């Protein structure tokens, strides 16, 4: 009898646990030089790989398509409840593109920004051989001139009258690194968010403090609310933000695997600060929610580069849809 029960328990576990060999998302600094180069090669590959999905004429590479997606959704993936889940799924998209089109076999690394908060310029992510290259050239429009993305040309721009409307453009990856601004990525800022008891409070805290610090501290392209995924540091940064949310969830998975909230439509102040229009009628059916509050049934779209899922599907990073672990 006892062994039958044990057997049944094992079967139940095997059915529930579909994420048997999670992809490891490692601390950037703990990658070997060989691992760093393999990851960098795959990132460079995305920047040169022809577009695959045909999303937009101006988007000629996979890199552009990924940036176009973020740009055109910017006014309903920022300043809203789906901010963290959407960007979690966007990291999954990125990881899958690296693996599917560029033969990458590892997980997306993260940049532990808290360790570097005292002085961003000393971070090893900016290394010109084993990193993404450093600050822009102040005598040349802040264009990045070293590392694997030196003088990288980007092709998707935004109109100034409404920054979520794309236009074909030609510009260069640029950065204007600021140690002062980056200091708000400090561990103490993260601790404040970590201490909050509900998603409703926590997403705003993580979004405003540690999240903004990575964008503003890097500056240039990365500081642009809609075009920021043009800079590869975006993905190191957002994987870290996702890790921070997962740490917060892990405090009490019973409660926090189902804790969602926040508004679906940004405030008017947020829209005007970013110089974009409020999302239109095609969004205000709230994409799966009954009203202007984000719930677990909210639909996350990547323009079908990977399938639509719901917020519920991405709450667990070790689940069916996302199967990774932060190490
Ligand atoms: C990442 O590595 C740095 C050392 O380079 C270490 O100080 C830090 O604690 C690590 N972060 C995590 C989350 O393990
Ligand atoms: C990926 O590997 C396949 C099979 O070895 C090869 O044909 C293809 O060229 C590789 N793609 C890239 C982008 O390296
Ligand atoms: C960061 O380090 C650089 C290089 O050592 C130094 O020039 C700069 O003053 C430091 N910044 C801060 C805020 O400590
Ligand atoms: C920065 O730009 C100036 C002006 O174009 C140029 O003379 C200089 O060589 C550039 N520096 C680097 C490191 O590329
Ligand atoms: C710097 O990047 C921004 C995108 O955020 C772009 O609009 C601008 O033209 C770029 N600057 C240069 C000199 O390429
Ligand atoms: C976790 O959350 C559940 C549901 O809200 C609660 O009953 C339980 O006490 C919490 N556990 C801890 C350790 O806080
Ligand atoms: C959605 O909620 C936010 C925050 O309460 C509010 O500022 C915004 O006006 C609401 N939008 C709509 C369309 O109801
Ligand atoms: C939403 O509507 C706007 C304006 O009508 C349009 O430009 C945009 O492509 C639509 N977005 C989606 C996701 O359908
Ligand atoms: C995916 O979701 C988007 C946004 O809700 C929607 O416009 C699109 O039709 C969905 N696609 C499918 C195949 O359901
Ligand atoms: Cu974003």
Automatic annotation (TrEMBL):
Entry-linked InterPro entries: Di-copper_centre_dom_sf, Tyrosinase/Hemocyanin, Tyrosinase_Cu-bd
Record's keyword terms, sorted: Copper, Metal-binding, Signal
Superkingdom assignment: Eukaryota
Domain spans labelled Tyrosinase copper-binding: 78-95, 231-242
A molecular function (GO) term: oxidoreductase activity
Pfam family, one: Tyrosinase
Listed Gene3D superfamilies: Di-copper center containing domain from catechol oxidase (1.10.1280.10)
Signal peptide range: 1-16
Name of this chain's protein: Tyrosinase copper-binding domain-containing protein
């Amino acid at each position: 009898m006892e062994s039958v029960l044990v057997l049944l328990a094992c079967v139940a576990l095997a059915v529930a646990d579909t994420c048997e060999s999670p992809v490891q998302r490692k601390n950037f600094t703990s990658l070997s030089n060989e691992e760093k180069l393999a990851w960098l090669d795959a990132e460079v590959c995305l920047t040169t790989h022809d577009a695959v999905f045909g999303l937009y004429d101006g988007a000629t590479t996979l890199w552009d398509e990924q940036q176009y997606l973020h740009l055109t959704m910017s006014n309903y993936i920022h300043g809203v409840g789906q901010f963290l889940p959407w960007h979690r799924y966007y990291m999954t998209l990125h990881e899958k593109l690296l693996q599917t089109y560029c033969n990458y076999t590892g997980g997306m690394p993260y940049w532990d920004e808290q360790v570097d908060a005292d002085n961003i310029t000393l971070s090893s992510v900016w290394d010109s051989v084993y990193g993404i290259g450093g600050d822009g050239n102040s005598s040349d429009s802040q264009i990045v001139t070293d590392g694997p993305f030196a003088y990288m040309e980007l092709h998707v721009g935004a109109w100034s009258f409404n920054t979520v409307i794309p236009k074909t453009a030609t510009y260069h990856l640029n950065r204007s690194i600021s140690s002062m601004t980056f200091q708000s990525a400090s561990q103490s800022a993260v601790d404040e968010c970590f201490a909050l008891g509900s998603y409703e409070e926590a997403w705003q805290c993580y979004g405003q403090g540690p999240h903004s610090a990575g964008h503003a501290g890097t500056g240039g392209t990365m500081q642009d609310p809609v075009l920021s995924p043009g800079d590869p540091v975006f993905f190191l940064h957002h994987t870290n933000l996702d890790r921070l949310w997962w740490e917060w969830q892990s405090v009490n998975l019973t409660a926090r695997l189902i804790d969602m909230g926040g508004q679906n439509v940004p405030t008017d102040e947020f829209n005007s600060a970013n110089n974009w229009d409020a999302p239109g009628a095609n969004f205000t059916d709230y994409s799966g929610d009954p009203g202007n509050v984000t719930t677990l049934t909210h639909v996350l779209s990547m323009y079908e580069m990977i399938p639509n899922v719901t917020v519920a599907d991405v709450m667990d990073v070790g689940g069916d849809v996302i199967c990774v672990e932060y190490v």
